[in-house]
Amino acid sequence: MPFFAELVARTDEPRRAFEINAAVLDAVSNGLPIERYRRLLLELYQIVWHFNPICATGASRMTDEHQRVRHYLYDHLHEEAGHEEWVVNDLRAIGVARETIQSYKPSMWTLGLIGYNYWAADRRHPCSILGMMYCLEVIASVYGGPFSTAIRDSLMLEGICGISFISSHATLDANHMATLRTAVDLLIDEGAKDSVLESAEVNFHYITKVFESI
């Protein structure tokens, strides 16, 4: 079995725990009140801001054994550069000042997600970041479209104003998943594979808690 297929199968339970969580189901079906949506974007800003530094941490620790994965990350880092500003633009569109964004204190669940991913990339195994990427791209590509539509309708937003980050990543991450699959299938050693499996499970858990906390 290719490792990507194993990753999908062995992380199905935490993915489904996210999918059937009451807070997630309600948000995807009915959108969110403006204050909860603001809090969600404020939490997402922290995650997006740290995404590239976490990936860079992993890339910097990869030996030539994982050279092709490292080169994949170089390309992906370039593609993701500046995406936190998309979140800023959405927040400003729904009435949140930049000063509020910069002074916001993230929840313990967001801190746990960020802290785990830095630690795992630096101390567990640098390839663990592929598990983080898998989790985030599954959520964006599968649920981003319905969620952004529900938010737009519930808040009566115009076009993509206020939802540009989530709606754009619903499309972008569907394309990213194909390249991620290729990178994941490059892994052959069990230590790297185990770290990716653990990382995906942990990230699904924390993202679910972030939705609950808002």
Q: In words, what does this structure look like?
A:
This protein is mostly helical and 214 residues long. The protein is 80% helix and 0% strand. The protein is built from eleven helices and no strands. It is globular, with a radius of gyration of 17 Å.
Describe the largest sheet. Answer: none
* Distinct helical segment count: 11
Structural class: mainly alpha
Query: Helix coverage percent of residues?
Result: over 70%
Low-confidence stretches: none
Q: Give the quaternary arrangement of the chains.
A: single chain
How far apart the termini lie comes to 39 Å
Q: Please name the CATH architecture.
A: Up-down Bundle
Report the sheet-strand fraction.
under 5%
Global Rg: 17 Å
Question: Concise description?
Answer:
This protein is mainly α. Helices cover 80% and strands 0% of the residues. It has one domain (3-213): Up-down Bundle (Heme Oxygenase, Chain A).
